Amino acid sequence: MRPCLLSAENWKITGRWNTTSEMYKLRDRKKSEFLLGPTHEEEVTSLVSSLVSSFKSLPLRVYQIGKKYRDELRPRGGLLRAKEFVMKDMYSFDTSASKALETSHEYHIISPIGEDTILKCSNCTYTANVEKAVGTPSVKPGNIKIPSWINLKSELPPIDIESEGVLYRSTSSNGFKYSLVLIPKGRTINSVKLEKNLSLENPQVLLEYDNKVECDIYIDSSLGLFEGYRSIDLVEIKEGDGCSSCKNGILGTERAIEVGHTFYLGTKYSSSLKATFKDTTQKNVLFEMGCYGIGVSRLVSAIIEASHDRHGMIWPTPIAPYKVCVVPVYDKCNREMNKDMEKILSQLVYNMNPHSIHDVALDDRDVSFGFKMKDAQLMGYPYVIVAGQAFLEKGVLEIHERKGGNIREVSDIDELHSFFKNL
Question: Mind listing the GO molecular function terms for this protein (predicted)?
Fold first, then answer.
């Protein structure tokens, strides 16, 4: 695992030392600069570069689980957005961009307290973040409306949909570059799509200009296809638009919590840090990288938010820290019986673990039965096994299911093992 306290050296080389605002920066007594790691691309890239020199060692996946630190402007939701959190992050190193691009995905949990907006189709399984969603915007027949001072390179295509033009000015090697984007009237251009598809450097919207300008023309795909013009998906999809996947459904919105993200890094870090390997021709080639992050502490909070009731949390069985809690009913007036109960239950828990049930907790605290059951509900154990007088006399146990509230009796250990094995 890479350290939490990082040197500023590699971060200055990649340019992130001065461009990332969420860092905790500090100096030691020798005035050397450090930061508390918000992420570890620089450190992992440097590590792999020192260890891997040939294509024969690729593809390579390096992961860790550890703490991250970010100076969040608005911490919220307990563990959902915190200044210190636990993350599982993995970094991939490949020989080509095509292989590095094979995985790019976001993972969300639907929740009303989420910060992301998800668009879901009413007819099929299509789901996407609003930043990446593709759909069929609703349009109206009409004419094109553009600023009168724009001198176009060529005539506009015969668009019979009510639309408007947005002019962008971006920097280029020859000064300024102008781009006219045509979209349905009243719609918004998606900044993520604009950056991805047009590769404009520092784009600015021009509302007025005192000179006529020449510009490239880009037409949003919802306006149609026109020969000689580039048609691109640029509009931000919203609730009520049609689904482009099944063509029949309508897209609706839901709030969601992002708990994981995988995306392509390319050679952003390997080029800055001169991280290369030798390919089949013994030529030095930059690593093609990807990044995969799962917010462990955020995931815990999201799970509790999505799975709880008025009594407390309800852990899903596959990820519960303890799947079963054994709660004994002691007789305050019979200490000998209580000792026998403890011996039997200890043996019961011991026997359960090697078989079908793992992660079994025994609540042997000296508190009332009601107190233990309340705590068991609050902690969200998927199953609670109650062992009372009937267990000592007849070997009968009660299994309480936390999620459904169902109670089942089993009369021997084999039946108990069978119950949990068949879940």
Answer: ATP binding; proline-tRNA ligase activity
